[in-house]
Give the backbone structure.
Amino acid sequence: YEYTDAKPRPVIYSTARQISTVREIVDATIELIGADREFHWLHNNPSRALAVQLLTTLPLFKSNRFAEESEYRFVQSAHRGDGVEFTTKEGLIVPYVKVPKEVKAPWRTVGRHEVIHEIVIGPGNSPLNRRSLETLRDKMGFQGLLIHQSKIPFR
């Protein structure tokens, strides 16, 4: 497994933009199939290439009802078993991928401004999620970062 630099990417709230993004991914995959050149291992299998692109893009889609959040997300993927490690927390087996420390610093601040001001935990998440985020926040030196549970119900 090779870590790819997961950069903060803006969430896509517009349905029209979500559709055009998926079309661009599909069109690019079709173009790869028709190209007469040597491919990276991933592109030798068009369905895998399409799946990887979609799996790293779809987490960026969110309902336009949440556009005011102006959310950014880090999306990182690993192939089954490659680079995935496991730990246990409160009786649960939790998979994770290690992120090198040198990758963390560049997105902590932009100029003199903190990139992350608050984290809102979605409805239905367990207290374990909050404690994990608080531990991560403290470890990364974001002690002033607000973490709270969303009051918006699932339905």
Summary: The first helix runs from residue 15 to 34. The chain is about 30% helix and 20% strand. The mean pLDDT is 76.
